[in-house]
């Protein structure tokens, strides 16, 4: 454990950011899984709806405070 006040703060901030990143990445993976499941079920309408939702989720993750790199193949 750190002894310096600023180092203690960095530990807390990094922990918070890591939890946020994990939640965002998990949401992206879930959205992609939903699209793949709809495609596997041959449900074109559901696949289109899920694709639109997944595109939105991935776009939000890729811009601003980037959690996914824009050239990772997901965007």
How does this structure look, described?
- The chain has helices at residues 5-40, 44-62.
- The mean pLDDT is 88.
- The protein starts with a helix and ends in a 13-residue tail after the last helix.
- Helix 1 (5-40) packs antiparallel against helix 2.
- It is 73% helix and 0% strand.
- The protein is elongated, with a radius of gyration of 17 Å.
- With 75 residues, it is mainly alpha-helical.
Distance between the termini: 39 Å
Oligomer: single chain
Q: Which range does the strand content fall in?
A: under 5%
Which segments are poorly predicted (pLDDT under 50) over 5 or more consecutive residues? none
Rg on CA atoms, Å: 17 Å
Report the total helices: 2
Helix content: over 70%
Outline the secondary-structure elements.
Blueprint: H1 5-40, H2 44-62
Helix pairs in contact: 1-2
Q: What's this entry about, in short?
A:
With 75 residues, the protein is an all-alpha fold.
For the structure shown, list the relevant keywords.
single chain, 75 residues, mainly alpha, 2 helices, 73% helix
């Amino acid at each position: 454990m750190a002894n310096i006040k600023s180092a203690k703060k960095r530990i807390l901030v990094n922990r918070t950011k890591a939890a946020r990143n994990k939640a965002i990445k998990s949401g992206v993976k879930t959205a992609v899984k939903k699209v793949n499941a709809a495609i596997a079920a041959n449900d074109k309408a559901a696949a289109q709806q899920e694709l639109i939702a997944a595109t939105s989720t991935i776009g939000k993750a890729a811009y601003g405070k980037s959690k996914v790199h824009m050239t990772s193949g997901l965007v």
